[in-house]
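Hi support team,

I'm opening this ticket because the web form for multi-chain structure prediction keeps timing out on my end. I have pasted the exact lines I submitted so you can reproduce it. The total is 302 residues across two entries, so I didn't expect it to be a heavy job. Is there a limit I'm missing, or should I split the entries? Thanks in advance, R.K.
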Amino acid sequence: MPVTGSGRRTLWRRAAVTADPDSDLVVRLRAGDEDAFMRLVSRHHDTMTRIARIHVPSDAVAEEVVQDAWLAALRALPDFRGEASFRTWLLAILVKRAQTAGVREHRSVAVEDVERAVDPRRFDAAGAWSTPPARWDEDAESRLDAAALAGPLRRGLTRLPDRQREVVMLRDVDGLSAQEVCGALAISVANQRVLLHRGRSRLRTFVEAELRAQ
Amino acid sequence: MRLGLKPPPISCQEVVELVTAYLDGTLSRRQRRRIDAHLADCVNCSAYLEQMRLVIGAAGALKEEDLTPEMEREFRTVFERSREAETD
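Hello R.K., no limit was hit. The queue was backed up. Here is the completed structure from your submission:
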């Protein structure tokens, strides 16, 4: 029997798999539909290129690896059983190809890294906020929508350390699951969470500073 | 099991370090309850959490460029090559 807590996560994961957003296109692709193929390529292209680029030394090589992975995926499609989502299956093929082609070394990040989510000087001795988060919605309601945050976010992303940016892009921009990111970058669950946490925290601080300066 | 016992309080500084695990649903039930209890009373941490949600949502809305016509041609070639392999 599953223990409390992890049982719920298993159910959640199963639900995520059954709701594979690619399933209709995959059915059409199995029947040889080229338009379905192009839509799948387009849908996953940024994510695949981003992951490949992490493993190989140039954009050109990354593009080649992505094409290579698609060719391998098309040939292996009869073996795809839908046990994982199509994207998870596709990314596993890509990562294997990228690692073979890749020369860049994996940099693992120490989990005990002391970087804080928020500058410790913003808390009092008891750990309560002394300089609370600046409100983003005081001046104009438009500040709250995603479009208004896009500029500061893009600038913030370029300022993140490579590994944090990679994880944040894959999780939050591309919408990959934690497990998919661990597989794509060959890092542990704990490492993934630390990198995501540091990256998101820095981004929030960066956006806060930019909005305050406006 | 300690159901019914009030969880010990947690500080704002601890909450901001647990936000990612909280949003990912990977905390223990006990930790989650401690954070929920804190958030119910703390406007600053509630604002912080809301801002994190805004950042994550806005990141998900960042649009990337479509495939260039050249890339599209290359992928159509990949598709043809896979078909050739099947009929060999």
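A quick check on our side: The helical segments of chain B are 12-24, 29-41, 43-60, 69-87. Let us know if the file doesn't open in your viewer.
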